Amino acid sequence: MIYGQCAGVMVVGRYCRSMSIPGTVYKAHATGNDFVIYEDDEGRYAPTVGEVRLLCDRHRGIGADGLLRLTHPGHVADVSDRVRADCAAAGAEWFMDYRNADGSLAEMCGNGTRAIALFARRGGLMGSSVGSSLALGTRAGVKTLTYLGDVSPYGHDVFRVDMGPWRMGETEGYAVGIPGVDGSARGTFVDMGNPHVVAVVEDGHADLPAVEDLDLVHKPIVEPRIDSDQNVEFVRVDAVPSSSPDHGERSGPGRATMRVNERGCGETLSCGTGLCATGVVLRSRTGVGSWDITVRGGTLRVDVRDDAVSLTGSATMVAKVELL
């Protein structure tokens, strides 16, 4: 499958510049988290920081939360020998080279895995039938995606992603505030291969506005400071399922609402690893391991186990773009 072979030329204001990426790229989103995507089978099209910023710019470029290059593990310069060995052991021929909209490298993007898996499926790089799977290399390890088809209430072209292990820090060990907004909430650190701080904002529990009313234009402030930059989630619990009096089994998934400010791009409509981090914190608070979590881009399912998390949600191909 070859989506584009020649370097494109994009007009930027009064200037033309040759780009080190293919002349044809694609636009996709996964519950509103949107991406520029292209395939790089031969490892010829590693993007520069400036090119990522330009393509993701919503006024001067295509517009996206990040860029996804589908390539092979050996073609990604910053990937370690250990990660390449893990990809080989898992049979992961393809690798998701993900860049945030500001051009910075990212370890992982849960929504990005679904978008790039749909891109691979449409291009014949994974099976097309329901139940087909794809082992995908990422900087945070190999993730296995399974195609589920259309699933209510999650939408069309739904994938389940095995997001791998998680690690949670001290419960509510951080103070989380928003510049220009009075009040704060307590947040919990969760490592999903990338760093998150999850603040559960219950009505009357924290002195911040309701989740729907938060101003997330500005990057939240986390204290004490974490060494690496982090994503921040604000969450409201909407419903906790009751247990069966006979067997102690839950009647269904819990329901919650989440908003997120992602490092490198600001507030997004959805964040896959943030959803998983939220599920981890909610499980710790309630004992419920399965959650339907609504973000601005839709509703997704998170299932948390002791050793791993899975994320279920839709993906959508939007457009084929020829760069001029």
Write a structural description.
- By secondary structure, this protein is mostly beta strands.
- It folds into 2 domains: 7-165 and 315-322, Diaminopimelate Epimerase, Chain A, domain 1; 167-307, Roll (Diaminopimelate Epimerase, Chain A, domain 1), CATH 3.10.310.10.
- It has 4 helices and 21 strands.
- It has helices at 49-56, 81-90, 110-122, 272-286; strands spanning 7-12, 15-22, 24-30, 33-39, 66-71, 94-100, 133-138, 141-151, 155-164, 167-168, 174-177, 185-191, 195-200, 221-223, 231-239, 254-262, 266-268, 290-295, 298-304, 309-314, 316-322.
- The strands form 2 sheets. The protein has a 19-stranded mixed β-sheet that branches. A two-stranded antiparallel ribbon has the order 1-2.
- Strand 4 (33-39), helix 1 (49-56) and strand 5 form a beta-alpha-beta unit.
- The longest helix has 15 residues, at 272-286.
- The radius of gyration is 20 Å and the shape is globular.
